[in-house]
């Protein structure tokens, strides 16, 4: 039985790719009728969705198939809706963070900034153009997420539940993004609990909690099972984010695909920084981070401090605690053994990635 | 009968206000559970929807009631969805245009920029904070539009048609916004036809064509009536945009609520500018406009040139032509006389506003 589910999941993942291919093909056809530059924007947006792990559709499919769902096309469409939501949120998050690179490649704003630079525009103008197109592209992906959900063949009651879950995901993520923007303007560092809350809202809800609940709802699971998966998703998502904070400073650039200086240079408020801010080493650390002109030597020193003051150990323990708490929810009698095993794998890969 | 429809429209407009009040009340309650700053963001977003004419809901209601629809709550919800879409698009458009004021008041980004300035942040930082919050707020309004449509009680077939119309509206608007962004980076001015095309996509589709079609679809009108209304909406929307271009330069600030120097200072590519660019006066005009340091004397000279070279007359004629073409679609036998009269009023007020 278990093998059958895994096979279904793999078939489902191919289906997600096909659904997204179809979505973009239709959009590109429509866009081309408007202008060639609109077609290019859709091509750029599509490229930005390729190369990722498509983690959220995977989670939807795992929950759905392991809870007995058999309509892989419907599950793939729900998964694709979450992938489009993810695309929208990261494109807009990158605009807010003034990031032009993701996974070592130009992101949507980066592509358009580079095009403007190549056309001879001054740096500031090219930057603004990149950000402007990023805003438009994110709006299209967000609209696509809701339209994708409309295309799921299911009864109206289930569709309304799914739309509610997607809405809650956006609502939480926007709230978390706002707190994150607020942090970047506060002097000092907020307490660890506030950082965790922000990370849960901004990323964990839409990446773990919501896709799990959506997969379960689509499979017709009972309210208790949906709630248990939601709790599991929440804790896994927090563990994932804490690991993200660790990788952002100590990660291997070639494995994570992102600069291990970015977070430090930006002075990003992470669990590591929040912990360090409560220790005497903050005096030195706060002078090193958050400087656009940070040199590799300063970054090395900042890493040393984060190890010495115990921030790295603290964050590693915290991730392990949340992972363990996540696993405890799998013991619920509402979670079938096969699903528990599949989710256990998701926790492990979330916590051990980049190693 | 006609009076009854007008009464229905007025009741419907109150219903739109109630629906939007309910939407924001529920969102604020949810937001408050997350953080007080998230509550403030929703309050700011709500304020930004008040004070406008709520033109798009009006159009939905006119089409719906005049075509025999009687479920005012459903029509109000469709209207509210378009109002939320409008909010999302103008909030993001203002971010792209780096505008912090709308209708003489701080817009969402303006409110947050001012808060950051008051808190002592440097101008550049405060500006970025305002723009960041604007991106988040627009995403929430866009999500709200799709959720609002989900709440319309109607059969699944009609709901799917309505969702398709809303999707087309976003698709067109994003395409128009992209062309507009492209224009702002092109030297010289594009031809008038391209300006009209951009304005149609960016604003006319979602403001006129789509609300009319949505109201008609909800009323169960036949495909021919829906198509005739779509054509009417397209031409009215273009006339409206050309008048917007005129008001942006020649309008009375106290009537339009926007600076009559803004478009000139920005060097915005409008029908006026596109026309002037084909005339010998462009040599002088192009040196005056598009300068952040433009003084009132330069603006007066630019207006004189736009009158002398015939751009003002040309734009006025163009608006009248589109208004006349719009009215010609009302002669279709698919458009009831009462609806034709109501729409005729909409054309007149679109073309004569700000006078």
Task: Give short descriptive properties of this protein.
homodimer; 355 residues; mainly alpha; Farnesyl Diphosphate Synthase; 2 domains; two-stranded antiparallel ribbon; 1% strand; prenyltransferase activity (chains A, B); Isoprenoid_synthase_dom_sf (chains A, B); Polyprenyl_synt_CS (chains A, B); transferase (chains A, B)
Note the topology:
Two copies of one chain form a homodimer.
Chain A: H1 2-34, H2 36-49, H3 55-66, H4 72-97, E1 101-102, E2 105-106, H5 108-118, H6 123-150, H7 156-183, H8 192-218, H9 223-250, H10 253-256, H11 262-266, H12 271-276, H13 282-288, H14 296-308, H15 311-329, H16 337-352
Characterize the structure shown:
- Two copies of one chain form a homodimer.
- The first copy, chain A, starts with a helix and ends with a helix.
- The first copy, chain A, is globular and about 60 Å long.
- Chain A is mainly alpha-helical and about 350 residues long.
- Chain A is built from 16 helices and two strands.
- Helices cover about 80% and strands about 0% of the residues of chain A.
- The first copy, chain A, folds into two domains: about 1-155, Farnesyl Diphosphate Synthase (Orthogonal Bundle); about 155-355, Farnesyl Diphosphate Synthase, CATH 1.10.600.
- At the A-B interface, α1, α2, α4, α6 and α7 of A face α1, α2, α4, α6 and α7 of B.
